TrEMBL record:
Protein name stated in the entry: Sugar ABC transporter permease
UniProt xrefs under CDD domains: TM_PBP1_transp_AraH_like (cd06579)
Organism placement in taxonomy: Bacteria, Bacillati, Actinomycetota, Actinomycetes, Micromonosporales
InterPro entries in UniProt: ABC_transp_permease
Recorded GO MF terms: transmembrane transporter activity
Domain of life: Bacteria
Membrane topology: Multi-pass membrane protein
GO cellular component, as recorded: plasma membrane
Localization, UniProt: Cell membrane
UniProt main location, coarse: membrane
Annotated keywords: Cell membrane, Membrane, Transmembrane, Transmembrane helix
């Protein structure tokens, strides 16, 4: 069976790099595999990973959502306001409802007003953060310290069988997302539309319904992520997680989802999220200044985009054989030495 280099990368590439990084990590950070640090990495990866799962659908459909950083800030602020007003149940409902509302706002701009997704979500990124700033004009919203034992706080702080609850929530989200993408007609429509919007419309797939579904899904994923984020940091305002959208997009593309649409891999996204989280933990442990951390993040994003281009170039079946043949110094057609 002919294999492509792009296919091999999608299946094993990021996982192999993650394993290599995990092998090197103890050398650079001796206490990396301590229980506390391992739990910290898994807990930190949750909110990034949950949003990346939703973003995988968006990018696979041929679009992306630049507003997720603003959504996370707004959902976190509104969730804390809900907790202050009515406790855990209202806080959870507020986060999910706010995320869904943000997603529907984006979908409406794109489908009703025909604003390109890039422009629409870039604009709402600032709008959502601006609303969060207005809601916190008297100071950041915070959780009172006397609520440390409340069920809401336990979302971010509790461990079950040694695993942080946020990480378990992330695992559940990925399991549901994988089933949705690979085992339902809706998931197949997302991939089909990303491959060829014209052909998808010819087959009866509604672009409006698909866009509404995808951006609503991203919004709900942000709402879930906000619950794992805010119960860990206990405070939020309009500046929460500045630049978060770049981390999400970098993880999704690095994991094997093509920016051109039509292909999404949740397993790759999951591995890429862990890779980004491990890398971030190593930088923080080594005391690397935040400015240099941003440079590293920018480098990861550039690498992700480069890999996406190379993956497209080597996606054709038989590219692995041709590459090996080329390295051996023989031409594919004649077999003669160069």
């Amino acid at each position: 069976m002919k294999r492509s280099l792009g296919g091999l990368w999608d299946t094993w590439g990021i996982t192999a790099i993650l394993l290599l990084l995990l092998a090197v990590a103890p050398v650079l950070t001796p206490d990396f595999f301590s229980l506390d640090n391992a739990q910290s990495v898994l807990r930190e990866s949750a909110y990034l990973g949950i949003v990346a799962a939703g973003m995988t659908f968006a990018i696979a459909s041929g679009a992306f959502d630049l507003s997720v950083g603003g959504q996370l800030a707004l959902c976190s602020v509104v969730s804390l306001m809900g907790f202050a007003a009515g406790g855990t149940v209202l806080a959870v409902a507020a986060a999910l409802a706010t995320g869904l509302a943000c997603g529907l706002v984006n979908a409406s701009l794109i489908t009703r007003l025909a604003v390109p997704p890039f422009v629409a979500t870039l604009g709402t990124l600032f709008v959502f953060r601006g609303v969060a700033y207005i809601l916190t004009k008297d100071g950041p919203k915070t959780l009172p310290y006397d609520q440390i034992g409340s069920p809401f706080v336990k979302i971010g702080g509790l461990n079950v069988a040694g695993l942080p609850v946020p990480f378990l929530i992330m695992l559940a989200v990925y399991a549901a997302a994988w089933l949705l993408m690979r085992r339902t007609a809706t998931g197949r429509r997302v991939l089909a539309y990303g491959s060829s919007p014209e052909a998808a419309r010819f087959c009866g797939i509604s672009p409006t319904r698909l866009r509404v579904f995808v951006f609503a899904l991203v919004g709900v994923s942000v709402g879930i992520a906000a619950l794992t984020y805010i119960t860990r940091v206990w405070t939020a305002d309009g500046s929460a997680q500045d630049g978060f959208e770049l981390k999400v997009i970098a993880a999704v593309v690095l994991g094997g989802t093509s920016l051109k649409g039509g292909k999404g891999t949740l397993i790759g996204t999951f591995s890429a999220v862990l890779l980004v989280s491990v890398l971030n933990d190593m930088l923080v442990s080594e005391g690397v200044p935040s400015a240099y951390q941003r440079i590293v993040l920018g480098g990861v994003l550039i690498i992700a985009l480069t890999i996406d281009g190379l993956r497209t170039r080597f996606a054709a079946p038989g590219s692995l054989r041709r590459a090996v043949t080329g390295l051996g110094g023989r031409t594919p057609k004649t077999g003669l030495a160069r």
